[in-house]
Amino acid sequence: MTALSVNVNKIAVLRNSRGGGEPDVVRAARTCLQSGAHGITVHPRPDQRHIRTDDVLALAALTLEHEVEFNLEGNPFAPPREGYPGFLALCERVRPAQATLVPDGDGQLTSDHGFDFARDAERLRPLIAELKSLDCRVSLFVDAGGAGLALAREIGADRIEIYTGPFAHAQASGDAGAALATCIDTAREAQALGLGVNAGHDLSQANLPEFLEAMPQLLEVSIGHALISEALYVGLQRTVHNYLQIISDSQ
Description:
8-stranded parallel barrel, alpha/beta
């Protein structure tokens, strides 16, 4: 069954907008896990705009307690700075089940493109090797239809995560056919190379059923912004249940 990993970045955004400790990121993550979510995802950034190092440590302990996967996302090329030790250093401290490498910069509001493997593969190779020495499964963020999946496999990646923003935007406009076909083709190419396939970005209750029905052997979806937004209206527990039902119905 496709795993649901809940991204709790947005809980930290709300907390940081006021200061203090509310809403509590760990409490929110615990609620998601108690509601049946299969794992927790966070994407700490060097500018600490949401998830901070102390959150990463606390969530690592929580996921260990619940015996579920912790997926740590980040840019492995970003240098350390005050309060942020660097992505690999964080992985070394908490040993996440999965390290998802994403080529985002401080100026991006959110991740909006995958790696350029022709440019980045050789820089990624030693970093992937280091992460795998920590027993982290390594996933690389990729554009649907992008080139270089064979390179991704050759430099040691275990999985890819397909950037689903273009699919979500096309689906909202009523014509997701071409974007969805591109995602399917990318998944099949990756699987033929021996790579597992995850997906994430702008997935929601509105578009996830169509996506899951079409995607072959999808291992994991990472969902944050939409899930937390929807939970404002009906509650976090019910929203997680709704996503799990969508996943169950699609299998």
